[in-house]
Amino acid sequence: MMSRHASSPQTGKGLLQTLRRFIADRSGVGAIEFVIVAPLLIMTYIGAFEITVGITVARKVARASSNVSDLLTRVEKTNTTMLSAMKEVTRSVVAPFAQNAYSLKMTGIAIDAGGNAKVAWSREWSRASGATNESEGTPYTKGDAVTLPANTVAKEGFIVRTEFEMQHPLLLMAPNLSSRVNEITLGKTSYFRARIGKNITCSNC
User: 10 Å Cβ neighbour count for 54?
Assistant: First the structure.
């Protein structure tokens, strides 16, 4: 006598047909593909956004550096008060981006008849990443030799060099990453020749 619990041929055949229908079913393929592709698309979008913002900030940093040199070469005399105001110039140029961690160095360079360039005066304002207060100092010693770019040809003249750097935050959607990942330094050095006279003096630098 056959057991009551034995599977009938019809039951096995139905199970096989169900399995075949499951394998042949493609109704969920779109959802699976979306789950696989969506993270890649989001990462591509964020990357493109960050690159676009970074290029914009880099252009603003370059413009800020040039504006400082341009303003300082329009006068024959300057002082620490005027030089200190230049950090507000850079801050307004890079807006709406925040000038939190930055370094601004302004150097007056005198060039003699032989083409030898030396530091006449210099001043720096900066703020480290995470700091609340700004620091002020003299980055270069008066009389130190200066190497000018190869394309700068000047004799018996005066040049103002502006070195401006700023920290730019990255990965706006992942703020908890380490500081070595979410910040980059953008900087620009500009050289402008004195427009009035052959010298720019700083009374209290």
Answer: 14
By CB neighbour count within 10 A (0-12 exposed, 13-18 middle, 19+ buried), where does 57 fall? middle
DSSP percent split of the chain into helix, strand, coil, nearest 5: 40, 25, 35
For the beta carbon of residue 56, count every other beta carbon within 10 angstroms.
13
Is residue 104 within 8 A of residue 80, CB to CB? The reply is: no
pTM for the whole thing? 0.76
Could you give the residue ranges of the DSSP H alpha helices within the chain? 9-24, 29-72, 80-94, 179-182
**Polymer length of the chain:** 205
- Amino acid identity at 197: G
How do residues 130-147 score in pLDDT, each as one tens digit? 888 999 999 999 999 999
d(CA 56, CA 186): 11
Sheet bearing 102-111, strands edge to edge:
135-137, 117-127, 102-111, 157-169, 183-193
Task: Return the closest-CA partner of residue 109 out of 197, 193, 205.
Answer: 193
> CA 199 to CA 73: how far, in whole Å?
9
Distance CA 127, CA 136 (A): 9
1, pLDDT greater than 50: no
